[in-house]
Design brief:
The chain is an alpha/beta fold and about 400 residues long. The chain folds into three domains: about 190 residues, inorganic pyrophosphatase (n-terminal core) (Alpha-Beta Complex), CATH 3.90.1640; about 45 residues, no CATH class; about 130 residues, Diaminopimelate Epimerase, Chain A, domain 1 (Roll). Helix content is about 35%, strand content about 20%. This is DDH domain-containing protein.
Length: about 400
């Protein structure tokens, strides 16, 4: 009988010792909580586990335990190998001379007879000192951002475990555990931790807090429509294990830096309603971030604020201008709408309640109108709107 993804992961972990744990760039609460929880659990099992996130966490997540475990860079520790062909000439003596003032190291090889020529020397990199890679909450390898670009060979050399809950996942791993019914990757990890150490429970206060952070943020504190009975049961289990629920609520939902409040003010002042197509949208520009001194990640949460004050609306769209292009975040209000279908119009993905897409190498001046037109056409067909109901309304220009 074929092993399930969870069983395959348990088997791979029996042999692996040096494990790398990753999540998507600009990580949210689920990404951060998941990699911290898994890293802590693996270390409790005696594994050499390393969590990497190239960006510093948002201030809202500074309460997370063991944040110092997160590495902002990664060296795969590959040896640089110098190979000498000794078929014709043997080595009598090998030495080296360090020249710090010249920033050089001379390797000195003395032949026992004859001489070496430059064709006898070749160079290579050794294998990365990583046995296994976990990639959490990332639907594609590209979502790893610069890490993927600078370590691309790593994903060909080392088995990769892909754990996620997004419908648009590319199934890029050797093992792919994609649970579309889960509210979050953290929810999936609770089941994994129970399986990899049945004799000695791994859940403790720190791990439980990290996992509850993931579930809480991906359900907007259990207010979003993706909240399931299972999610509530798992959350109760984590609280019973010592998760600091009040710290999560206080830090993520009740405390906001001044820069975040100013940025949200900009976004909320630009909310525009598209009727009869039943959605609202807003925009945020690169110039806004520069003016306020805010980070792109500080847009997180504002879309959930829009959900609370949007009657007669099917979904909310936030378009953020970034240096690499335009990022679109979508949240569904209407339960019968699969918001991932709209993200898919632009090559994006997600799940029925929340999704996202990227328009690379673009800006809002170029992309805003085409994006809105595509979405309105989708909604017109979905809602059965007649031609007269689709008369274009002049839009305000925001910059």
């Amino acid at each position: 009988m074929e092993l399930t993804p969870k069983q395959q992961i348990v088997e791979l972990l029996k042999e692996a010792q040096n494990i790398l744990v990753l999540t998507h760039q600009n990580p949210d609460g689920d990404g951060l909580g998941s990699i911290l929880a898994l890293t802590l659990a693996l270390q409790k099992l005696g594994k050499n586990a390393t969590a990497v996130s190239l960006e510093l966490p948002l201030v809202a997540f500074s309460f997370l335990p063991q944040l110092a475990l997160l590495k902002q860079d990664f060296q795969s520790n590959k040896d640089f190998i110098v190979t000498l062909n000794t078929l014709k000439t043997q080595v009598e003596k090998l030495g080296y001379k360090n020249l710090p003032s010249e920033h050089k190291l001379n390797i000195i090889i003395t032949p026992n007879s004859g001489s070496f020529v430059k064709e006898d020397v070749s160079f290579a990199y050794g294998s990365a000192k990583v046995d296994l890679i976990f990639i959490l909450d990332s639907p594609t390898l590209e979502r790893l951002g610069p890490f993927k670009d600078t370590n691309s060979d790593l994903f060909y050399q080392v088995p990769t475990i892909n754990i996620d809950h997004h419908a648009g996942n590319d199934h890029f791993g050797k093992v792919n555990w994609i649970d579309l019914t889960a509210t979050s990757t953290a929810e999936i990890l609770v089941s994994l931790l129970e399986s990899i150490s049945k004799d000695k429970p791994l859940l403790d206060e720190d791990i439980a807090t990290c996992l509850l952070t993931g579930i809480t943020t991906d359900t907007n504190s259990f207010q979003n429509q993706n909240t399931t009975p299972k999610a509530l049961t798992v959350a109760a289990q984590l609280v019973a294990a010592g998760a600091h629920q009040q710290d999560i609520i206080r830090s993520v939902y009740k405390t906001k830096p001044l820069t975040t409040l100013k940025l949200w003010g900009k976004i909320l002042s630009r909310v525009y309603e598209e009727q009869p197509h039943r959605f609202i949208y807003s925009t945020v520009y690169i110039a806004d971030f520069a003016e306020i001194g805010a980070q792109q990640e500080e847009t997180s949460g504002v879309i959930d604020e829009l959900l609370k004050t949007a009657p007669n609306i099917d979904f909310v769209l936030l378009l953020s201008e970034r240096r690499g292009g335009v990022h679109g975040s979508l949240r569904a209000i209407e339960r019968n709408l699969d918001i991932a279908q709209i993200a898919a119009l632009f090559g994006g993905g997600g799940h029925s309640a929340a999704a996202a897409f990227e328009i690379p190498n673009s800006n809002l001046a170029q992309s805003l109108s085409p994006i809105l037109e595509k979405i309105k056409n989708f909604q017109a067909e979905r809602l059965g709107l007649g031609v007269q109901q689709q008369i274009e309304i002049d839009k305000p220009s925001f910059s």
